[in-house]
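lol forgot to send this yesterday, sorry. struct tokens for the thing we talked abt
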């Protein structure tokens, strides 16, 4: 089974590049088989990690960023793969 963990945060005013750098510097142990970082308007940062694990597996997740980098606490979602098609 494959599960994807999504972490999304909005940067504090003018701190988008700092939040991206912070998110990229965070290590997860163990490391996921796949990890991608995205950006969107309004200084939003999204990190998706993919795991070969059950939906309810105990998996490492990104922490909350330092308060000065974020406009609000991050949102977190977990999705189970339904396969291709």
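and heres what i got for the seq, position by position
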């Amino acid at each position: 089974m494959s599960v994807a963990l999504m972490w999304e945060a909005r940067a504090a005013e003018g701190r988008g590049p700092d939040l991206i750098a912070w998110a990229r510097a965070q290590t997860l142990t163990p490391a996921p088989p796949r990890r991608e970082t995205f950006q969107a308007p309004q200084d939003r940062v999204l990190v998706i990690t993919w795991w070969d694990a059950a939906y309810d597996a105990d998996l490492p997740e990104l922490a909350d960023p330092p308060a000065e980098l974020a406009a609000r606490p991050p949102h977190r979602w977990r999705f189970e793969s339904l396969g291709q098609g």
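The first helix runs from residue 16 to 25. anyway ping me if u want another try
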